[in-house]
Design goal:
This protein has eleven helices and 17 strands. The chain has 367 residues and is an alpha/beta fold. The chain folds into two domains: 198 residues, no CATH class; 165 residues, Rossmann fold (3-Layer(aba) Sandwich).
Amino acid sequence: MEHAFHPDPGIETKLLELLKAGERAALAVVIETEGSTPQVPGAAALFTKQGLAAGTVGGGTAEARAQKAADRALRTGQSSVLSFHLAGELNLGADGVCGGSMRLLIDADPGRDRSVFAAVLKALESRRPGVLAVAIRRAPAGGKIAVRRSWLPAALPASRLKAAGLAGFRGEAAACLAEKRPRLAAAGSGWIYLEPRLPAPRLLIAGAGHVGRAVSRLSAFLGFAVQVFDDRPEFATPARFPEAERIIVGDPAAELGRASIDGGTFVVIVTRGHRHDAAALRACIRRPAAYIGMIGSARKVGLLRDEFLARGWASAAEWVRVYTPIGLPIGSRTVEEIAVSIAAELVAVKNKGAAAESAAPTRASRR
């Protein structure tokens, strides 16, 4: 199964921290793969003279070779492009045995682009997508590698493309954003590597009880930007939700109605009761969320469906978008197991992989 592309903004954060502390680092980035490999283009690892500081390019042979090349880059100050084949190497991921090839950029001095990395982080914090473009040039004499990064906002303004020397790559950059995956294009004696950078998926949790708390922790760990809504100030607290970006104390339905919900927003409804769940669902069922999930038994789901359709609160097509009973069917019983089933369903929908079929909406309504 193909791995999904999910860049880790923690790499840029760690790099800027190291640079601020006066420590040098080399950055390894997977820029191309073919066949079965442990990672996809966009995977990255940061190395210092002490070893791996953050990220991964796949472990095993890939990581060992990247480490060796990074050590050399830190000694010589020379960047390189490393290509190798993973012949029959065991991969503990979904693919079993690797037999593909990888191409890695080993950047000896990513600090030269610290302003670009800072711009990427600032844009993502403001939920503004764009493309991180990396020009990789091989000098005619000596074959030394030169690396230069540029940050291109999603609008891809012609002036920004021209200034970055990428005027001829507008189509590639647009396709990179549309497909949400990196692209590598030949450019003279080198390459242009284009990486889409999108804000973390936003997760709105209606309900700060035990399930909401467990889902928040798991989802933040999985890369979601979490917001929590509850009208009980003793539950909706930073002490209970230290990982949440925002905690809103107020009526969950009213607050969901005011919240920004777009195609990158996931909604989990786990309030303290049937009526609160119904009100929260009414507030978002007609919004363009990527995912709306509601906790409840098959009986409760059936009753709510009948009420929503009878009162005109939703059409049959709108109702079928709701994932309820929420979570993948793993036989969960405890709060923690329920949270795992919900988090797994969120990931399945986000990645739109094979597991998404198991996460089909309103399973109970079709029984």
